[in-house]
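Appendix B, example 12.
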Amino acid sequence: MNQKTFTIIDEMGLHARPASALVSAANDYSSAINIVYKGKTVNLKSILGVMSMGIPSGEEFDITAEGADQDAAMEGLENKLKSEGLIA
């Protein structure tokens, strides 16, 4: 399993447009990918799950990936977070 911690820098937090882009990117991989925030874990391939997290600016969260393409998934998702302006 691959796990990494990130901090949201977007002043609006993890809001709908970048969340949708992140979910779309996660669906490009076969690995099981989850987002973990304040003890709650949801499937990163579910927009409703991601939006239910309500992660505000300045908060830390983890992404976990487990499967055949877990390393590629983590790299791709980190790049997507950066390109969407969610992390530095």
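The longest strand covers residues 60-66. The longest helix spans residues 70-83.
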